[in-house]
TrEMBL record:
Gene3D superfamilies listed in its UniProt record: MFS general substrate transporter like domains (1.20.1250.20)
Protein name stated in the entry: Solute carrier family 15 member 1
Intracellular or extracellular location(s): Apical cell membrane; Cell membrane; Membrane
GO biological process, one term: protein transport
UniProt family annotation: Belongs to the major facilitator superfamily. Proton-dependent oligopeptide transporter (POT/PTR) (TC 2.A.17) family.
Amino acid sequence: MADKEDPKKGKRSKGTSKEVCGYPLSIFFIVVNEFCERFSYYGMRAVLVLYFKYFLRWDDDLATSIYHTFVALCYLTPILGAIVADSWLGKFKTIIYLSIVYAIGQVAMAVSAIHDITDTDRDGTPDNMTFHVVLSMVGLLLIALGTGGIKPCVAAFGGDQFGDHQEKQRRTFFSVFYLCINGGSLLSTIITPILRAQNCGIYSKQKCYSLAFGVPAALMMVALVVFILGSGMYYKAKPQGNIMLDVCKCIGFAIKNRYRHRGNQYPKRKHWMDWAEEKYEKLLIAQIKMVLKVLFLYIPLPMFWTLFDQKGSRWTLQATTMNGDFGLLVIQPDQMQTVNPILILTLVPVMDSLIYPLIKKCGLNFTPLKRMTVGMILAALAFVCAAVVQLQIDKTLPVFPSASQVQLKLLNMGNKTVTVQLQDNEPAILAPAQVSDEYFVFDTDQITVLATAGSTTVHRGISFTKGKRQKLLLPLDLNKEWVQIDDLNSKPEEGNNAIRFVNGKNAEVNVSSAVANFGIIQPFHYSNYSLIKNGKVTFNLQSGSESCEYSRDFGFGSSFTFLIPNNLTFGQNCQEEITSAEDIKPNSVHMALQIPQYFFITAGEVMFSVTGLEFSYSQAPSNMKAVLQAGWLFTVAIGNFIVLIVAELAKLPKQWAEYVLFASLLVAVCIIFSIMAYFYTYIDPAEIEAQFKKVDDDDEDDKSKQQKAEIEMVKRDSVSSSEDDEKSK
Ligand SMILES: CC(C)C[C@H](NC(=O)[C@@H](N)CC(C)C)C(=O)O
């Protein structure tokens, strides 16, 4: 479909799309497509690590590295999609073909998660894991190719739908486009984990990963259908040959030609790309200059994404050491990430309709590059907030033993009071079934213990392992074996609570609950730790025919050792009789304290990312719109790699210091960027291209006039010579 001139306005209107309130109707299909596609992508991503861990049974390290490799790949493939679109197929066809690849990938993921396919013995676990691993890896590769490939094309294709006179509408389109990204991702990150938690299966019921991947697959098909439905209304810019090859050749020639003419005798040219003038069209050279100018400006930008992408890693880890109890709502650490899209949905309209117009009214020219600079500063501020929160958390964290220390708690399993003297410490007096409140700290691994219960006194030298927290279980009869057990040496992961039972009774006790089973605990022995989520848990204790219940409310990140006392009576409930030792206190710093850092990073994202998206489109030459979008997304990929490098190189012992380091790096980069931005002159690519086309047309006109004149002359000459011939005859 070709451009159409609107003779009345003298401006270009595009496509055959009707306009609604000044906007081409075709963009409706594009934003709905983006909504569904982002639902599909983020929905699948939300359960991916859990699928690796619990379905494919990979360990944490493998699951995390494959996950990050996949995410990085999704931001590297845009360059492929952009080259195909701008040089070969055009954006429309590229989006269609790659969306099909993408949907096939999603279906492959959904199929790979059906355990019944290879569950020949019908025990609920897949029997041919290779099948599931291979299929899911193929699926992920196709998804990375699809999602990355179409990403720069969809944004640029949306921008293409607007005429040159619709700059304001195009800016609003990019804001709405961003809203759709976040609306889709927010919904899917809430829905797919719920789908995963369902049980499904033919032979045996298991967690329903196939449904959690199947719904995103269906949404990707919807995205494709919606996009095709708009087909008749789109403006489809034609690809202009292998533009990337031409660009590379032209740059190569300019460099070679400049090198060949490096002596003083050769006059200087305004720009090094002008050295390609001997061989290449001025229009192409001008377009390359535009792209290079923007790409140069992109160099410092990955640092923003380095900070931005730590929401999903460092900040989520930080949340695991915090208290997520919001009264009516209990927020899990990874759910805090949804604050970002929620804030986007509110901040984008507020910025567009309130803040930016207000700034304009104050007479300030808040240019795109200024907005991006402010966005960076806000992101740095977010990390300062994260550091302050971290300092608060650090104050509440337990002090674990250093490599040369031993920490020790005493637990009296007997029914007499015991007096214990550890080395030269004050004697500790423990009532029956009592645990010492605090850990005793020693700088030696050999400790002498003097324990007295009634008339029995026992003196022992005991070896401990340095760097560990341990419990010494004092038996009913002090002359019997004293059991040493290891306590946790770090906070339980993901905000879980680590719980275990010690059985002080002379009989076996079976401890169970709805969320964890501790099994049968032998007399004077202990269970393993079980990880349980926050909330109220009722434990059922059973010994022979007797049983009782014990309930407890858990917060986040605590560790408890419960002692079943020797004289437990097994009444209706054992609430008063069970002794608890709080080995690690629950998280006390509230997760709400993370909201300021989320607010600043999201406000920064709106100023940086939404503006950058539109800036990349508006400053790109017409034949390289998708390529520049891909360049923009490439900064995201580089940003992700920087996280790994800086965290690895810096290896700071304190997390707050790492946050301050990242904030300082971004401020430094921001200063460089603002200097670069100061020297950047905004251009209107369409205007520049039009000028060159006009020059070419004028040249063409001159050439054809000259040719016509020459032909006329030849004609006249031949006529006059034939007349002369006639005459001479
Ligand atoms: C360029 C991308 C990083 C931008 C965009 N991401 C977002 O809008 C995030 N606020 C989404 C959130 C769920 C992480 C995207 O296209 O995904």
